[in-house]
Amino acid sequence: MPEREAEHVPHRAASLPSAGDLYNIDGLLTEDERLVRDTVKKFVADQVLPIIGEHFEAGTFPSDLIPAIAELGLLGMHLEGYGCAGLNAVSYGLVCQELEFADSGLRSFVSVQGSLAMFPIYAFGSEEQKTRWLPKMASGEIIGCFGLTEPDAGSNPSGMQTTARKDGDSYILNGTKMWITNGSIADIAVVWAKAPDGIRGFIVERGTSGFTTSDIRHKLSLRASITSELHFEDCRIAASNMLPSVRGLRGPLSCLDEARYGIAWGVNGAARACYLSAVEYAKTRVQFDRPIGGFQLTQRKLADIATELIKAQLLALQLGRLKDQGMAHPVQVSIAKRNNCRQALNTAR
Prior knowledge:
- The protein is α+β, with helices and mostly antiparallel strands.
- The chain folds into three domains: 114 residues, Butyryl-Coa Dehydrogenase, subunit A, domain 1 (Orthogonal Bundle); 98 residues, Butyryl-CoA Dehydrogenase, subunit A, domain 2; 94 residues, Butyryl-CoA Dehydrogenase, subunit A, domain 3 (Up-down Bundle).
- 47% of the residues lie in helices and 18% in strands.
- It contains eight helices and eleven strands.
- The strands form four sheets. The protein has a four-stranded antiparallel β-sheet, covered by helices on one side. A three-stranded mixed β-sheet has the order 3-6-7, with helices on one face.
- The longest helix is centred in the C-terminal third of the chain and has 35 residues.
């Protein structure tokens, strides 16, 4: 057989990639995913970046932004129905990435509302609970928090000491939860406690007798975020406030998997912010009659940061694709969170 002539493909020089997307990851996203990302990026640039520095210094949360965040459909964005946007997992990750480009506290607020407060009601609540709470949580009218960690039970949630004692058609809660994002501004708390039949989740409304909060102040990080303690002292709630469809640690741990997924994306936004700031500084800071970006020592640091950021972004994107296919495992979520948090910390340092 005669050999086929090889088609001549003219050489075309690729254009220099932008500093913010050195590996053309943008090309791996769908048009809808890019639209979601760009919409949130514009919101961050226009409304968040001009004010977030002052909130960080003051140790306050920019609650005035909540209506705009809700208007964008970002609260419970990955849930279907009940007023939620129903975005895919990759879009959810991209939103977390853009929010954390501005501040980790802002991303944390959205993650807690959607993944830790709304998700357990969506996944394990009764239809009455879903209908009552989720639409108003999606619209930002009701803010939620998630009570699992305790002063003496952090990495080991099975060691929790908060109890829920059955008393007729009520449960009586006693105990303390600590390091709770949104705690003092939350209208409801999804609280996990040891009941007679195992660990159970309960919806506790603000103002319930025996339920109080106190803020944790003078933090060194997550300063533009509300972090609280939740206190329960003979707090009586209706038995109908219990989430009926889950028992044991599977409930809270599945919520944490949802939140950790968002963190794996979010920290890439923080790392990108650090990287772009470092690049700009290296261009403008002059020493020995030239910008410090002209020295190989600085160039290597920036190259290392850029490389690790690309790897972290691809890791998050593959995790998102797996999640959208229903194939993501908690181990994979943990791998992405572990790697991406570590690279973000190294970048910031």
